[in-house]
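Q: What residues go here?
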């Protein structure tokens, strides 16, 4: 490769080569790491030169032979840069003032629209959390302490041995009976099931669930467990409903029994 090819880096960077020389240099550049490295170092310089117009270049050429002209040129450039920065600062300040004025006007308009009436805070809807009830407050659960009464016939029971409490609402449906129930003083961990015992001595498991270690309606977790189940038996066919605890071997033991 000729030495001229290596000397075309600056001309190529400045974009002064014709199409034929540009194509030739690019072929050379693809295989010459030295020219590629040199071209990379010239990129910032080319970016600076791109902002200089023809008149400025002519003035710079004249300053090469006239030192006084160089000083005047440099002073003019500095003054122009100061004026440019000042215009930018003034424009920014004006924008801030206008924006602030518009914001103040908009805020004043809103206040006028609202008028002197008192602002009433709307209630915030939050997700219920498990918190112990305050002393003296009534317990909450299905149909107890809530805004709406639960549909159905209510029956309650507390087992004297286990201490588990149950409140159940039996709703007669076309398909049988819907059972809405709430359990308290139910310790965990354990697996439980709801068994419906019919008057004809038949029985069926209508629901199963697991109780975490904190339990339900306990000192650790005050909230009671609320569930819904259903059975094909009509209300007058149900002899009793029993909540049972099932161990790892599948053996069930009663926790509380409710009789309609």
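A:
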């Amino acid at each position: 490769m000729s030495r001229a090819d290596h000397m075309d880096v600056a001309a190529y960077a400045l974009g002064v080569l014709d199409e034929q020389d540009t194509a030739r240099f690019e072929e050379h550049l693809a295989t010459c790491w030295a020219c590629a490295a040199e071209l990379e170092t010239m990129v910032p310089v080319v970016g600076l030169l791109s902002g200089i117009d023809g008149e400025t270049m002519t003035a710079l050429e004249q300053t090469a032979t006239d030192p006084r002209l160089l000083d005047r040129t440099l002073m003019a450039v500095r003054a122009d840069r100061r004026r440019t920065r000042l215009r930018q600062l003034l424009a920014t300040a004006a924008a801030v003032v206008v924006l602030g004025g518009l914001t103040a006007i908009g805020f004043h308009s809103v206040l006028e629209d609202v008028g002197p009436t008192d602002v009433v805070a709307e209630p915030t809807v939050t997700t219920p959390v498990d918190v112990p009830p305050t002393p003296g407050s009534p317990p909450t659960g299905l149909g107890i302490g809530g805004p709406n009464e639960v549909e159905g016939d209510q029956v309650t029971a507390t087992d004297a041995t286990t201490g588990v409490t149950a409140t159940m609402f039996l709703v007669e449906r076309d398909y049988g009976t819907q059972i809405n129930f709430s359990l308290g003083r139910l310790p965990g961990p354990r697996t439980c099931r709801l068994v419906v015992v019919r008057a004809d001595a038949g029985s069926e498991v209508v629901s199963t669930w697991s109780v975490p270690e904190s339990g339900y309606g306990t000192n650790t977790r005050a909230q009671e467990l609320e569930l819904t189940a259903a059975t094909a038996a009509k209300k007058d066919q149900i002899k009793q409903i029993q909540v049972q605890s099932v161990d790892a071997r599948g053996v069930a033991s009663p926790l509380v029994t409710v009789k309609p």
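A: Context that may help when evaluating the design: The beta strands are 153-158, 165-173, 176-184, 190-198, 203-211, 225-231, 238-246, 252-258. Helices lie at 3-6, 9-14, 19-29, 33-49, 54-63, 67-114.
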